[in-house]
C-alpha cells in the first residue's frame, strides 16, 4: 500500500505484437537519440513547449513521434531531449497538456476524442508530474484522528476522538496537548494571526461536547515533553454536537456548524473586558494553581438548515458557506445573516471548500463516491461543472490547493486520499497508506498533504509540486 499514479498513466499502448527496434529522432545537429516504438504506429509532428526554466526547456523545433505514446512515452522523449542537451540532467517525470487539457490516454486516442487534427504540428506543453512521497513514520494518536489543519507551515494541528487536540511541530514532534473537552474533537482551526508575534498562536476547536474552545500557545523551539494547555475561553450556545469550525480571514471571529442545524458566529478578539463573556474558574491540568477562563456567547445565529451543518468555510470577510446533511449548500451574508444563495443537491453533504478560479468554485462531497464542483457565478443552472468519481465510498474531506486554481484533494471512507486537477477526469495521484477510513485531509506547506483516519494515524505525503 502507498502512493500510486492514476491507472491510465501506467497503461501500455494497445498493440498485439512485440516492440520493434528503437526509433531515431532527428534533433537539430545533435546525434540521433532513440526511443522504443510499437510496431506499425503512425507518426505525428509535435513541438514541446514549457514555462519551466533551463535546464528543463527542450528545443523548440518539431519532431515526429509515434501516435500511440502514452504520457509515460512522451515523458521519456522529453527526458531524452533534455539529457541530449545536458549530460548532467537528472530524470524527471512530466505531465502533458494539449489545448489546456491533461493527456491521460494514448496520444492518437486523445486527439480523436477531442477532434484535434493530427495533420498539423501539435503544440504539447509539459509540466512537472506530481509524484508524492509518503513519510515513513506516521504520527500516532490514541483514537480516530477526526481533524487536521495545515495552514501554518511550522506545525500541524490535529483533533482526535480521545477528546484532545494536539500540536505537531514540523509535522513530527508532539509539543502541545490541548485538554479540556469532554467529547471527541470534531474540527480544528488555526485562527488568523493578528497582533501576535511569530511564536504565539491562537487555535479553535469544536467538539461533540457541544462547545467550542479557544487556546493560546507559544511555539517553543526545543521541547523535551509535550506541554498541556488549557483553553482560555469556552464558547457555549449550541444545543448539540459541534461539527465544524472555521476562522474568519480577519482573525476577529470564528464560525461554527452543529447538529442543532444552526450556524453561529463568535467574536474572538482579545480584550481586557468582554461584555459577551462571563468569568469561570477551572483548575489547570498541569499544575495546582487556579486560572481564569471566560465563557463566550455567539454574536449571531443563522437558521435555515434542517439537518446537521456538517461543514463550514469562511473564505471572505463578508461571506460564510455551509454544507448540511439536508442536501444543501448555503451562502450567508455575515452582516445581515441572510442566505442569498442556496443550492440543493440529492446527497447528504459531509465536506465543503471554496477555491479554484477567482476563489469562486465550490467543491463538496458526501454520501456517494462523487466529488462535485459548482460555479455559483453561472446563472440559471445549479448543475455541477465538474464531477470526479474515482472513490468507492463516501467522501469525508475536500480542500482546494491554496496557490493553484486547478488542484484540490479529496478523502474518503475507502481509505484513500486523491489529488485532482480540473484539466483531467482522472486523479493525478492516489494515496492509500491509511489502513482504515480517512476522516480528514488538508494541505500543508503548499507541497504536502496531511490526512487523519480511523487507523488513529496522521500521515504526511510530501513533494507534491503542483503547477
TrEMBL record:
<feature type="repeat" description="WD">
    <location>
        <begin position="235"/>
        <end position="276"/>
    </location>
</feature>
<feature type="repeat" description="WD">
    <location>
        <begin position="178"/>
        <end position="225"/>
    </location>
</feature>
<feature type="compositionally biased region" description="Low complexity">
    <location>
        <begin position="7"/>
        <end position="21"/>
    </location>
</feature>
<comment type="similarity">
    <text>Belongs to the WD repeat WDR12/YTM1 family.</text>
</comment>
<dbReference type="GO" id="GO:0000463">
    <property type="term" value="P:maturation of LSU-rRNA from tricistronic rRNA transcript (SSU-rRNA, 5.8S rRNA, LSU-rRNA)"/>
</dbReference>
<dbReference type="GO" id="GO:0005730">
    <property type="term" value="C:nucleolus"/>
</dbReference>
<keyword id="KW-0690">Ribosome biogenesis</keyword>
<feature type="repeat" description="WD">
    <location>
        <begin position="302"/>
        <end position="338"/>
    </location>
</feature>
<feature type="domain" description="NLE">
    <location>
        <begin position="44"/>
        <end position="111"/>
    </location>
</feature>
<dbReference type="GO" id="GO:0005654">
    <property type="term" value="C:nucleoplasm"/>
</dbReference>
<dbReference type="InterPro" id="IPR020472">
    <property type="entry name" value="WD40_PAC1"/>
</dbReference>
<dbReference type="InterPro" id="IPR015943">
    <property type="entry name" value="WD40/YVTN_repeat-like_dom_sf"/>
</dbReference>
<dbReference type="GO" id="GO:0030687">
    <property type="term" value="C:preribosome, large subunit precursor"/>
</dbReference>
<protein>
    <recommendedName>
        <fullName>Ribosome biogenesis protein WDR12 homolog</fullName>
    </recommendedName>
</protein>
<keyword id="KW-0539">Nucleus</keyword>
<dbReference type="Pfam" id="PF08154">
    <property type="entry name" value="NLE"/>
</dbReference>
<dbReference type="InterPro" id="IPR036322">
    <property type="entry name" value="WD40_repeat_dom_sf"/>
</dbReference>
<dbReference type="InterPro" id="IPR019775">
    <property type="entry name" value="WD40_repeat_CS"/>
</dbReference>
<feature type="region of interest" description="Disordered">
    <location>
        <begin position="1"/>
        <end position="21"/>
    </location>
</feature>
<dbReference type="Pfam" id="PF00400">
    <property type="entry name" value="WD40"/>
</dbReference>
<dbReference type="InterPro" id="IPR012972">
    <property type="entry name" value="NLE"/>
</dbReference>
<keyword id="KW-0698">rRNA processing</keyword>
<keyword id="KW-0853">WD repeat</keyword>
<comment type="function">
    <text>Required for maturation of ribosomal RNAs and formation of the large ribosomal subunit.</text>
</comment>
<feature type="repeat" description="WD">
    <location>
        <begin position="388"/>
        <end position="430"/>
    </location>
</feature>
<dbReference type="GO" id="GO:0000466">
    <property type="term" value="P:maturation of 5.8S rRNA from tricistronic rRNA transcript (SSU-rRNA, 5.8S rRNA, LSU-rRNA)"/>
</dbReference>
<dbReference type="GO" id="GO:0043021">
    <property type="term" value="F:ribonucleoprotein complex binding"/>
</dbReference>
<dbReference type="InterPro" id="IPR001680">
    <property type="entry name" value="WD40_rpt"/>
</dbReference>
<dbReference type="InterPro" id="IPR028599">
    <property type="entry name" value="WDR12/Ytm1"/>
</dbReference>
<keyword id="KW-0677">Repeat</keyword>
Amino acid at each position: 500500500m502507498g502512493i500510486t499514479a492514476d491507472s491510465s498513466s501506467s497503461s501500455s499502448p494497445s498493440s498485439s505484437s512485440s516492440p520493434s527496434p528503437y526509433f531515431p529522432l532527428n534533433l537539430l545537429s545533435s546525434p540521433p537519440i532513440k526511443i522504443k516504438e510499437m510496431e506499425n504506429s503512425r507518426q505525428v509532428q509535435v513541438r514541446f513547449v514549457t514555462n519551466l526554466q533551463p535546464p528543463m526547456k527542450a528545443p523548440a523545433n518539431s519532431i515526429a513521434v509515434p501516435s500511440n505514446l502514452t504520457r509515460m512515452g512522451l515523458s521519456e522523449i522529453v527526458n531524452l531531449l533534455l539529457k541530449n542537451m545536458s549530460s548532467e540532467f537528472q530524470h524527471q517525470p512530466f505531465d502533458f497538456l494539449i489545448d489546456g487539457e491533461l493527456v491521460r490516454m494514448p496520444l492518437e486516442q486523445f486527439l480523436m476524442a477531442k477532434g484535434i487534427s493530427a495533420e498539423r504540428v501539435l503544440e504539447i506543453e509539459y509540466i512537472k508530474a506530481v509524484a508524492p512521497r509518503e513519510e515513513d513514520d506516521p504520527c500516532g494518536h490514541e483514537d480516530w484522528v477526526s481533524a487536521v489543519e495545515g495552514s501554518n507551515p511550522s506545525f500541524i494541528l490535529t483533533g482526535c476522538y480521545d477528546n484532545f487536540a494536539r500540536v505537531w511541530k514540523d509535522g513530527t514532534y508532539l509539543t502541545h496537548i490541548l485538554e479540556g473537552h469532554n467529547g471527541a474533537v470534531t474540527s480544528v482551526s488555526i485562527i488568523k494571526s493578528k497582533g501576535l508575534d511569530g511564536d504565539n498562536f491562537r487555535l479553535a476547536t469544536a467538539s461533540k461536547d457541544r462547545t467550542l474552545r479557544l487556546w493560546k500557545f507559544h511555539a517553543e523551539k526545543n521541547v523535551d515533553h509535550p506541554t498541556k494547555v488549557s483553553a482560555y475561553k469556552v464558547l457555549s450556545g449550541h444545543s448539540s454536537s459541534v461539527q465544524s469550525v472555521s476562522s474568519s480571514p480577519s482573525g476577529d471571529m470564528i464560525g461554527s456548524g452543529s447538529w442543532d442545524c444552526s450556524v453561529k458566529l463568535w467574536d474572538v478578539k482579545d480584550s481586557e473586558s468582554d461584555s459577551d463573556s462571563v468569568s469561570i474558574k477551572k483548575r489547570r491540568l498541569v499544575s495546582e494553581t487556579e486560572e481564569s477562563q471566560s465563557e463566550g456567547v455567539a454574536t449571531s445565529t443563522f437558521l435555515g438548515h434542517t439537518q446537521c451543518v456538517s461543514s463550514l468555510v469562511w473564505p471572505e470577510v463578508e461571506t460564510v458557506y455551509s454544507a448540511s446533511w439536508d442536501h444543501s449548500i448555503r451562502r450567508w451574508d455575515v452582516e445581515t445573516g441572510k442566505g442569498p444563495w442556496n443550492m440543493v443537491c440529492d446527497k447528504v453533504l459531509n465536506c465543503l471548500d471554496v477555491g479554484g478560479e477567482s476563489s469562486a468554485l465550490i467543491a463538496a462531497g458526501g454520501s456517494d463516491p462523487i466529488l462535485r464542483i459548482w460555479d455559483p457565478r453561472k446563472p440559471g443552472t445549479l448543475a455541477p461543472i465538474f464531477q470526479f468519481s474515482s472513490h468507492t465510498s463516501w467522501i469525508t474531506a475536500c480542500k482546494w490547493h491554496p496557490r493553484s486554481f486547478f488542484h484540490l484533494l479529496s478523502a474518503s471512507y475507502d481509505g484513500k486520499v486523491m489529488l485532482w486537477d480540473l484539466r483531467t477526469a482522472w486523479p493525478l495521484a492516489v494515496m492509500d497508506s491509511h489502513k482504515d477510513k480517512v476522516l480528514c485531509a488538508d494541505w500543508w506547506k503548499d507541497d504536502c498533504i496531511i490526512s487523519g483516519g480511523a487507523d488513529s494515524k496522521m500521515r504526511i505525503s510530501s513533494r507534491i509540486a503542483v503547477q
